[in-house]
Amino acid sequence: MKTRIRTLLANGASGRECMVAGWVRSVRASREVAFVTLNDGSDMAGLQVVADQGLANFDSVCRLGTGAALRVHGTLVASPAAGQQWELHATIVEIIGEADDAYPLQKKRHTFEYLRTIAHLRPRTNTLGAVFRLRSRLAQAVHRFFAERDFLYAHTPIITASDCEGAGELFRVTTLDAVAPPLAAGQPDFEQDFFGQKTGLTVSGQLEGELLALAFSDIYTFGPTFRAENSNTPRHAAEFWMIEPEMAFADLADDAELAEEFIRYLCRFALEECADDMAFFDKQIEKGLLERIRQVAEADFVRMDYGDAIERLQRSGTAFSYPVEWGLDLQTEHERYLSEQVVGGPVFILNYPKEIKAFYMRQNSDGRTVAAMDLLVPKVGEIIGGSQREERLDRLTTRMAEMGISQEPLWWYLDSRRWGSCPHAGFGLGFERLVMYLTGMDNIRDVIPFPRTPRHAEF
User: Where do the DSSP E strands lie in 203-300?
Assistant: First the structure.
């Protein structure tokens, strides 16, 4: 049975017989010996394989190309070379899959733009390998965090008939004929569709998550979400993953407390459990990243009312590109100024004007604001958005009427306010945004293996 290189390097013993398998990163060969760097994706460093003339296929090993797949049997010994503790002296080298000079990853460094054109191969690079290892470990940490707090893990629908955000940016799901759909009053007749109504890919599992929280108290969802938004920015993708906890018998203060605990936990996890990859990001992607993440992990998360935030921005004397007025949403430049210049760390902005927030957010007694929150952190601005939900049926239906939202499609959501309603709250964290924040990567396309963006779905 093969041994993962990471495990071998961590638990190695001189003289140990083992077998490893992986892909060639480099070959240095002479008439007498060949040094092959082998990587199986389990760590950054890989393992040096030493092959000598005693191998039956020594000449073939010397001619190996970068990218070739090997299975190597041998003996682990202490390495005399600097920078590596162990090397594997090969007794058998099986060439499983060859790679010729056309293999695209011959150079040590490639631009991220180029690597996006070969997404099927880019996980073999150091940077993308480190990103996807961290992404995997973080996903496990998310589940661990909520499991330790007895949250129920819920799977909410991917195909939905509701638009949580009310933005109408759903990808449509239909079985109607694309060329000649059945018509009713000149429009596609969705009553003849598979589900008998308009459906699309979900933008959020929140509404369904609320229903489950009103049965299980504390739940979370962690799954794919979709936005048919034609945004070609480094922060937007059409398919992304969302983490959305929901708590019954909870208010906005409880929501912010959970969000603070969650971010602090994930920052510490990355620093402690993914130290090698995080050190790589600090050295190669963003100088000072480790210190930035450490400061967030150890910081006091400030709470600031939206009105106070507007006043601070207006008094700053800074010429922002976007206007700063009460009633307008905060832009990234405002969010970063507040977290970096005013607070110098993470800050929750609380109680936003109701006119710029969704219909389901609880209305405050002032009649102007809702119990909403955004968590802002240095470098990126908003990383978490959440709210206390409106649990009062009369307030909810009135707000829906004001916003022109039909009640009939959401009859099931309104039912949850008729029987056993209670205060509840939750938030959403875009998983890719989190990975970007913890790695220092600047483009969302480089933190998800196969990004879906406008005009790009080829892999």
Answer: 218-226, 239-248
pLDDT tens-digit series, residues 278-315: 999 999 999 999 999 999 999 999 999 999 999 999 99
β-pair partners for 70: 22, 95
How far is it, in rounded angstroms, from Cα 434 to Cα 68? 34
Instruction: Tell whether the model's pLDDT for residue 167 goes beyond 60.
Output: no
124 token code pair: 């073999």
Structure tokens at 109: 């460094």
Q: Distance from CA of residue 249 to its chain's centroid?
A: 28
> CA-to-CA distance for 17 and 37, rounded, in angstroms?
18
The answer to whether 310 and 355 have CB atoms below 8 angstroms apart is no
What is the C-alpha to C-alpha distance for residues 169 and 241, in angstroms, rounded to an integer? 16
Q: Which residues contact 221 (CB under 8 A, 6 or more apart)?
A: 153, 154, 155, 156, 205, 208, 209, 242, 243, 244, 245
What gap in Å lies between CA 296 and CA 359, rounded to an integer? 32
pTM listed for this prediction: 0.94
Position of tokens 């990126």?
A: 380
Longest CA–CA span in the chain (Å) reads: 85
End-to-end CA distance of the chain: 32
CB 439 within 8 A of CB 224: no
Which one, of 20, 37, 19, lies nearest residue 28 by Cα? Answer: 37
- The values of phi and psi at residue 237, to 5°, are -140, 155
| 199-201, strands of its sheet edge to edge | 159-160, 199-201, 172-173
β-partners of residue 305 are 350
Provide the residue type at 252 as one letter. L
Model confidence at 398, in pLDDT bands (50, 70, 90)? Answer: very high
Q: Is 243 helix (H, G, I), strand (E, B) or coil?
A: strand
Please name the amino acid found at residue 207: L
